[in-house]
Structures are given as structure tokens and as C-alpha cells.
Q: What sequence folds into this?
């Protein structure tokens, strides 16, 4: 039996799964935590990967490995390959003003023209999460560090490079899916936009050309051979796959094809639809990313995901089961309570300076059950708005696959179909990003035009009568919140 490994280096932890390359059957797995925060030194990922490999029983019998990783994180390296400063992660919102500046600059001062220009150029309008906005923040706030940049890469790029044992910056590789989330890669032309990189760093084209950007590897092309890990284990027998961004990895792990959509409730909330055609949404709600197979992945991502429910559970001081029981005991609409869960600011809609809102409070409505239900309905309404945004880009969404850590909340699962307004498929719990990376590793070994057709396992199908009144109440409040935030002076860096 030939074994392959897939890694998910996410915001919160590093997970590794080892599977049978032919069938996808699980063999063993391991994990290790990442530190909290939105600014993390990549060495912490490297140490966590080593711990996860050890917990999984090592890789001596594994033939190939691919790394799926959190998208957008800015890793900047100097001429010696050393990390210049801790990586700014996707959920670091200090670059919000930089995003606004880049939009205006590409539009010669006209914001609408700038949004269209960015969407036409790279498929996405800058928001604080994209790598390009973090580079602009660096140029403005840490110019000495910006001047030291010899290479820019992403979390999965850096980990693959470290696993290869390479020392040359020229050996850095990435894949089309992760590159598409930088803001300076055109996934239609499959080419970097050095002019946009120059704009972000406030340098001329010549200096932008000197910066090493990872070579974009094909969907099932080997990126390198293994070298070693943080603990000195020999990995020279390993074939390293191209890797992928976490959202593309999840789509691959789920086996999504063109026309199929996933809703993921993790640290963030993500709606992703595999498409044969690119999206170019000038509103900025939908990012025009690429998937891990050569297709496209129009995607709407929130800053707020399952942690909304964690926060509500903490406020109520109850167990998971008690929280679910409370939420499910309340009536739809939560007695008039409406929770707009912008607890970390928000990306979709683009309101990085927003905070959460709870409204509709009366002596009658303010009960633990209604509060719990309002948190669940608020999170699902946020995801429903993302589904609508992706649908507006031409995706035919009449059913979704619900995945992510948030599925452990029975209340979120049970209420999902009613709030989203479509039937919901819930695959068996699993590490779908890591599974997707493992499938990619198997594809590298097997070759061919299509990835291996691994069985997904049992799927729970949920159907409920839609409750549009819940979403309507949410929309009324969220529009008020958005108007209030946009009326405030820009907060700048935070």
C-alpha cells in the first residue's frame, strides 16, 4: 500500500493526515497547536509541523506529501532567506486603510474605477486580508523592513520550501490557488502582476522585478523532493506536491466539481463554488480565486466564523450541549433578537472597523434561549449573505455542503437549511483541507488529468422549510450597521 500525507497549516493548528493513495482510506494522523494572534513568526508553524509529524508516527513509509495552508499570510524574506518580521495573517486588519488606498490609486482617485480595475486585473478587489495590502502596510509603517525584502511568499509556500531543505530563494514554489489570493497574480493569464507589486511596495518596476516570487507549480506537478523536518528526520524519500490554499484544499478534499458549493464554518466562514469560468466582482464581496485543479473558485469569506458561537457560549457560561439545547428551544427569529456578529470586524461585507450588534432586546425577548438562537441565526445569516454574493456571480446554488469545526454545534447544523434556504449536505466530520492536500499528493504520484476519486463517506442530508423572515430581519439591522460604520472617519491602522 502506497501512503500519502496531507498537511493543513491553519490559523489555529497544524494537522497532518496519512492516507492510502489508491483509496483515500485513513491510516493515521497527528496535530499540534499554533499560538493565538494575527501576527505569527513562521518558525512557530515549522515547529508545529514537526510536532504533528511526530504525533502521526513519522513519514518513513510515506511516498508523497502536500501542504495546504491558510491563505494570504505575508511572509517576507531577506537575501539570506531569513524571515524579516513575523507574518501578518489573513485576519490581521491593520492593512484596511492600505486596501482603500490601493483601490483609489489604481482608479486614479476614483474608487468605483479602482474596484473595477482591480477586479479586471486579478479577480479580486483589495481588502485587509489580501497579501498585497499587507505589503503596502509594511512599506508605509516599516519601510526599513520593506527595503530588505528579497522574496515574498505565503505560509504553505514557506513550509514546502523548508521541507525541501532548499536554501536558494529561487527554489520557492507555490500553486495557482494560493497565488490567486495575493492580489498580485492573474489566475486567468497565470502570471504575476509585477506592476501591482510595485504599486503596493511603492517601488519602481525594476525593483519589483528583483523580488523573488514563488514559481507557480501545476496542479499535479511535483514541487521538489523532501529534505528534512525541524527534528532532523530524513525526508529525502518524499515527493513534495505543489500544495494549495486552504479553501482550494477543502474543495479538493470534498471532491467538489463545477457547479458545486461548500459552506465552511471554521475560524472564518467561507462560501466557495467551483466554476469553469473566472469571476470578477467589482463590489469586492466575492474574490476571484483559483482552485487546486485548474478551474476557478469564486469565494466569499468572513472574518467571523464558529468563534461567534464560542463567544455566545462563554457569555452564557454553559456547555456545548446546553448551548445547543437553548438555541433549539427558542422559536425562529429568537423572539425579535437580531445578532449581527461582526466581532472581529468583517470582510464580507468589507467593514474591518465594525463591531458586533445585538438588537431587539426587551424584557420578554432577552432570555438565554433567545440569545443562543440569535447567535446561531446571526452566523448563518452572515453565511447566507455570502451564498447570495457568490450566486450573483453566476453560480447556480441549489444545495450546499456544510463543513468545518462549526458543524460540531448541533444547533448550527440543524438550523442551517432553514436559514440558508437550500438543502444542506453534511459530510462526515473530517480534516477536509488536509484530506485535499493528501489527495493532491496522490495525484502527483499517479499523474493523469483528474485527481483520484476517493469515496467521501456517509453524508447527512438536511432539508427544512426556508425562514426568509429571519434573514430579512438580519438584513435590516446589518444595513444600519454598515451605514453607521461607513459614515465614521476611517480608523486607520489598528
A:
Amino acid at each position: 500500500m502506497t501512503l500519502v500525507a496531507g498537511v493543513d497549516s491553519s490559523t489555529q493548528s497544524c494537522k497532518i493526515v496519512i492516507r492510502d493513495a489508491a483509496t483515500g482510506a485513513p491510516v493515521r494522523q497527528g496535530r499540534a497547536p499554533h499560538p493565538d494572534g494575527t501576527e505569527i513568526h513562521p518558525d512557530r508553524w515549522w515547529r508545529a509541523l514537526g510536532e504533528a509529524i511526530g504525533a502521526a508516527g513519522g513519514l518513513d513509509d510515506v511516498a508523497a506529501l502536500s501542504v495546504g495552508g491558510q491563505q494570504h499570510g505575508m511572509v517576507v524574506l531577506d537575501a539570506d532567506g531569513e524571515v524579516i518580521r513575523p507574518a501578518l495573517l489573513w485576519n490581521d486588519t491593520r492593512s484596511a486603510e492600505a486596501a482603500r488606498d490601493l483601490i483609489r490609486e489604481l482608479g486614479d482617485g476614483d474608487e468605483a474605477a479602482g474596484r473595477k480595475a482591480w477586479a479586471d486585473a486579478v479577480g479580486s478587489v483589495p481588502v485587509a486580508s489580501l497579501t498585497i495590502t499587507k505589503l503596502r502596510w509594511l512599506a508605509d509603517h516599516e519601510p526599513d523592513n520593506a527595503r530588505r525584502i528579497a522574496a515574498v511568499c505565503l505560509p504553505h509556500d514557506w513550509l514546502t520550501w523548508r521541507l525541501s531543505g532548499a536554501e536558494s530563494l529561487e527554489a520557492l514554489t507555490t500553486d495557482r490557488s494560493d497565488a490567486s489570493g495575493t492580489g498580485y497574480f492573474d489566475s486567468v493569464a497565470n502570471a504575476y502582476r509585477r506592476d501591482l507589486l510595485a504599486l503596493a511596495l511603492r517601488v519602481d518596476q525594476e525593483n519589483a522585478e528583483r523580488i523573488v516570487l514563488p514559481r507557480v507549480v501545476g496542479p499535479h506537478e511535483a514541487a521538489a523532493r523532501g529534505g528534512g523536518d525541524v527534528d532532523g528526520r530524513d525526508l529525502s524519500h518524499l515527493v513534495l506536491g505543489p500544495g494549495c490554499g486552504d479553501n482550494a484544499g477543502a474543495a479538493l478534499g470534498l471532491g467538489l466539481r463545477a457547479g458545486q458549493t461548500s459552506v465552511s464554518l471554521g475560524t472564518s466562514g467561507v462560501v466557495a463554488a467551483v466554476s469553469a469560468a473566472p469571476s470578477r466582482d467589482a463590489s469586492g464581496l466575492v474574490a476571484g480565486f483559483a482552485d487546486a485543479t485548474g478551474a476557478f473558485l469564486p469565494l466569499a469569506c468572513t472574518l467571523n466564523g464558529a468563534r461567534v458561537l464560542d463567544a455566545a457560549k462563554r457569555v452564557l457560561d454553559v456547555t456545548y450541549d446546553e448551548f445547543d439545547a437553548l438555541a433549539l428551544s427558542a422559536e425562529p427569529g429568537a423572539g425579535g433578537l437580531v445578532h449581527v456578529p461582526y466581532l472581529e470586524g468583517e470582510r464580507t461585507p468589507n467593514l474591518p472597523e465594525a463591531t458586533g450588534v445585538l438588537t431587539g432586546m426587551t424584557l420578554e425577548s432577552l432570555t438565554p434561549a433567545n440569545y443562543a438562537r440569535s447567535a446561531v441565526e446571526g452566523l448563518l445569516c452572515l453565511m447566507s449573505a455570502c451564498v447570495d454574493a457568490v450566486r450573483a456571480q453566476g453560480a447556480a446554488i441549489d444545495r450546499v455542503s456544510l463543513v468545518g469545526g462549526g458543524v460540531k454545534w448541533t444547533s448550527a447544523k440543524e438550523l442551517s437549511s432553514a436559514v440558508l434556504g437550500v438543502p444542506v449536505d453534511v459530510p462526515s466530520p473530517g480534516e477536509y483541507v488536509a484530506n485535499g492536500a493528501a489527495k493532491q499528493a496522490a495525484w502527483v504520484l499517479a499523474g493523469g488529468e483528474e485527481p483520484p476519486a476517493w469515496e467521501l463517506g456517509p453524508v447527512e442530508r438536511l432539508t427544512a422549510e426556508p425562514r426568509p423572515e429571519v434573514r430579512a430581519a438580519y438584513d435590516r439591522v446589518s444595513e444600519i450597521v454598515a451605514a453607521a460604520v461607513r459614515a465614521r472617519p476611517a480608523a486607520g491602522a489598528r
